[in-house]
Amino acid sequence: MKRATRAVVAVLATTATLSFVVQPVQAGGKDQTLRSAAPRDLRIGTAVAGGGHHVDQPYPDPFPNDKPYRQVLAKEFNSASPENQMKWEFIHPERNKYNFGPADAIVRFARDNGQAVRGHTLLWHSQNPAWLNEGTFTEAELRKILKDHITKVVGRYKGKIHQWDVANEIFNENGEYRQENIFIRELGPGIVADAFRWAHQADPKAQLFLNDYGVEWPGVKVDAYETLAKQLLAARVPLHGFASQAHLSMRYGAPDQLAGVLQRFDNLGLKTAITELDVRMDLPEGGVPTAEQLATQATYYKTVLDACLAVDDCNSFTIWGFTDKYSWVPVFFPSEGAATVMWEDFTKKPAYYALRDTLAAARGHGHGHGHGHH
Ligand code: G3I
């Protein structure tokens, strides 16, 4: 703890970015929030709802319009991840047109509220604009398109982004490179290293991550990431972290091997993070979860948090939305839902209290993980 605290202070002293504002120390008790309960070296984040599936829903875009939502967002979290607003189709809708407004608004909000930002994402197979998916480009053109995009987007937020998901979901379930990824398909897997290099050039202080789902248990996908991480590090590519999204379903059991997975990447000298945690369940008729389901859900959330707390350099823990009002889950999985820690009116579920109490206990025990390699 001591060493970690000193390291954090050093970072605060030398980093002029506003995403590292000191958190006021709050006493425990009823006024505690997730961010105030958390150990000082662990960021507690959420996805910031907007774009994507929200566009088809019968409500206005959440982040700009829902005031109570923004209040909870500011109060409970000290890290924010644009849910869709930094994805290619959103931020780069035409070849010669960028749409920075919505992402700028999130970065500004985060600065005003002492929140770090996780940038999401630069190299992905999904949510790319039609001009990119359907265009005809030479290899040299496509390479330049990717380099220009990364340089421009990462450069715009230089010094304001804590962590970037540089490469998102690049392996399939068999641990093979995803051929749906236009850049990997057309340019070969070596493009992953280039994406990290370009991002690092544009913002040398941002921590650069590999990010995926389906890596919560050991298996071929985790093996593929471990092999890639070793290769990139051996080649001195600026890779800084490995993240588990942790989209969980109660159909598939508790994430009880996650700490072991994270530890394998920590052993390589990488930071680790939880980036998109939610826990969906099959809803009974009537749509209201049982008390037993809610209790199980709370243990899943706690198990993921415990995994992060158990690993030295796991310094960011993000849930993929905090209220069922805006969750992506029922849109993708029609019979499942209730995946977040708050009901639609922002009242709290057992999962919320499980996270808060676990954070408070870790902080109370002088928990000081992270920054061990500095
Ligand atoms: O692009 C089509 C459009 O052509 C069509 O007219 C419209 C009709 O429904 O759908 C559009 O696709 C939507 C897409 O966002 C693009 O905007 C999908 O319906 C919509 O469901 C999708 O939602 C987002 C999803 O990523 C896309 O994969 C969600 O809002 C967002 O929460 C979700 O987030 C991802 C992370 O980025 C990566 N990890 C998994 C996570 C959950 O899927």
From TrEMBL:
Gene3D superfamilies: Glycosidases. Keywords: Carbohydrate metabolism, Glycosidase, Hydrolase, Polysaccharide degradation, Signal, Xylan degradation. Residues 64-358 form the GH10 domain. One of its GO terms (molecular function) is endo-1,4-beta-xylanase activity. Residues 1-27 form the signal peptide. One of its GO terms (biological process) is xylan catabolic process. The keyword Hydrolase applies. It catalyses: Endohydrolysis of (1->4)-beta-D-xylosidic linkages in xylans. Its EC number is 3.2.1.8. This is Beta-xylanase. Belongs to the glycosyl hydrolase 10 (cellulase F) family. InterPro entries: GH (IPR017853), GH10 (IPR044846), GH10_dom (IPR001000). Pfam families: Glyco_hydro_10.
